Amino acid sequence: MKNLRVAIDGPASAGKSTIAKILAKKLHLIYCDTGAMYRSATYGIQEAGIAAADEEKVMDFLKSHPITFQLIDGVQHVFLGEKDVTAKIRSQAVSAEVSAVSALPRVRELLVAWQQRIAQHGNIVMDGRDIGTVVLPDAEVKIYLVASVEERAERRYKEMIDQGHSVDFTAIKKGIEDRDHYDSTRKTSPLKQAHDAVLVDTTGLSIECVVNEIIKIIQQKAGFFE
């Protein structure tokens, strides 16, 4: 197989992780969920009682609690040190603070280095907010996923309800709007579409439709076939 790196960026709840996981499985690629890495860092410092603004302590914590992925019974799990945090990192508390942690320059530098190491051998799908612009600027294929705020809020609301959480839709929508603004205006690696990324609007589309559209783009851009 030729070397293939697929970078998928976009705002919160645009469907990046869901789509990336399916693509990786269909095209037999490695999947790296960079959002889960920042969420794991956020969850870890919350549990340790470390303020997101205290970058020195955050860095000390991360250096002693490496973030890794393991495939267990066909499902990818994320570990913070020795602890499986796959389910815990999707809480509303983590969602509310992850942008602040993600914006810390030294934290991004550390996690970007980890991500680039994971991707150095290619044949990978990686999703996040700065993959095509910072982490893998020379990726063979770059996708920028978007969806309306209303639809993204509905997706997030349903996900939280399905996980047994008691959540308020209006609060989730406001949180997504706030995070969009924060992520796109932060000084370090702001959320933006790479100049050579293909825009895919997922509003009103099924997961299958989006996956098929991206596979067509991969075929056209990289000459890669399943």
Describe the model.
- It is a single chain.
- This protein has helices at 16-27, 34-48, 55-64, 92-102, 105-119, 131-135, 149-162, 169-185, 207-222, and strands at residues 5-9, 30-33, 67-72, 75-80, 83-84, 124-128, 141-146, 198-201.
- By secondary structure, it is α/β, with parallel strands linked by helices.
- It has a single domain (5-212), classed as P-loop containing nucleotide triphosphate hydrolases (Rossmann fold, 3-Layer(aba) Sandwich).
- Strands 2-6-1-7-8 form a five-stranded parallel beta sheet, sandwiched between helices. The chain has a three-stranded antiparallel beta sheet with strand order 3-4-5, covered by helices on one side.
- A hairpin with a 2-residue loop joins strand 4 (75-80) and strand 5.
- Helix 2 crosses helix 4, helix 4 runs parallel beside helix 8 and helix 7 packs across helix 8 (169-185).
- The mean pLDDT is 92.
